[in-house]
């Protein structure tokens, strides 16, 4: 029925320090379920995958992570409906850099109503430097959703993208 079930394509970006696991999260998500396409793009890569519920195609952009790439970040951010800000729960620095750099960067380049998702990755690692409650509290104070993931073990990665897509559908 026309209009009953609009299929949407939503752009999500992964940001955060190098080595926190952005590419691993992306691969875990894309390869575990249906793989639509893989495409190189200026200053980054995006891959797309269609979810059933909600019925959207997620276009997931992953940074190259280099300093050189920073100049292209505004392009990378353009029309992103959700920013996934990733830190490594075993790296205090990667969490502090969300606070001091990545969140401001995202907010400066965000479209209105953009969904922000704070993600503590490497939840399988035992040498924890950031507690779950600290991550959760910071996310709540700054109007972000929050989840801990492990791209290695495959914990919460699919849930993360489903929750992000649901929040985007609600926001638009
Ligand atoms: P990126 O630079 O943010 O894209 O990070 P990568 O995805 O390249 O991952 C950096 C390193 O962390 C690699 O050695 C990964 O194998 C490792 N890694 C990524 N995710 C996890 C995770 O959930 N748990 C553990 N233990 N290691 C991870
Ligand atoms: Mg990477």
Comma- or semicolon-separated keywords:
single chain; 172 residues; alpha/beta; 5 helices; globular; binds guanosine-5'-diphosphate; binds magnesium ion
Describe it for me?
This protein has 172 residues and is α/β, with parallel strands linked by helices. It is 34% helix and 27% strand. The protein contains 5 helices and 7 strands. The protein has a 7-stranded mixed sheet with strand order 2-3-4-1-5-6-7, with helices on both faces. The chain is globular, with a radius of gyration of 15 Å. Guanosine-5'-diphosphate is lined by residues 18-24, 65, 121-122, 124-125, 150-152. GO terms for molecular function: GTP binding; GTPase activity. Keywords: GTP-binding, Nucleotide-binding.
Structural class: alpha/beta
Question: Secondary-structure element order, as H and E?
Answer: EHEEEHEHEHEH
Strand order of the largest sheet: 2-3-4-1-5-6-7
Fraction in helix = 25-40%
Rg calculated over all Cα atoms = 15 Å
Give the DSSP E fraction (strand runs of 2 or more residues): 25-35%
Principal-axis shape: globular
Count of alpha and pi helical runs: 5
The beta-strand count equals 7
What's the average pLDDT? 86
How far do the termini sit from each other? 21 Å
Pfam families: Ras (PF00071)
GO molecular function, one term: GTPase activity
Keywords: GTP-binding, Nucleotide-binding
């Amino acid at each position: 029925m026309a209009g009953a079930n609009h299929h949407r394509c939503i752009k999500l970006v992964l940001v955060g320090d190098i080595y926190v696991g952005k590419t691993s999260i992306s691969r875990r998500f894309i390869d575990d379920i249906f793989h639509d396409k893989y495409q190189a793009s200026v200053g980054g890569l995006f891959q797309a995958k269609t979810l059933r519920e909600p019925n959207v195609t997620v276009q997931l952009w992953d940074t190259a992570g280099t300093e050189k790439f920073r100049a292209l970040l505004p392009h990378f951010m353009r029309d992103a409906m959700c920013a996934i800000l990733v830190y490594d729960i075993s790296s205090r620095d990667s969490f502090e850099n969300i606070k001091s750099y990545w969140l401001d960067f995202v907010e400066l380049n965000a479209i209105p109503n953009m969904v922000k998702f704070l993600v503590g990755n490497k939840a399988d690692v035992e040498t924890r430097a950031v507690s779950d409650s600290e991550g959760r509290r910071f996310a709540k104070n700054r109007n972000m959703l929050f989840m801990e993931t492990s791209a290695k073990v495959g914990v919460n990665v699919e849930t993360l993208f489903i929750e992000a897509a649901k929040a985007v559908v609600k926001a638009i």
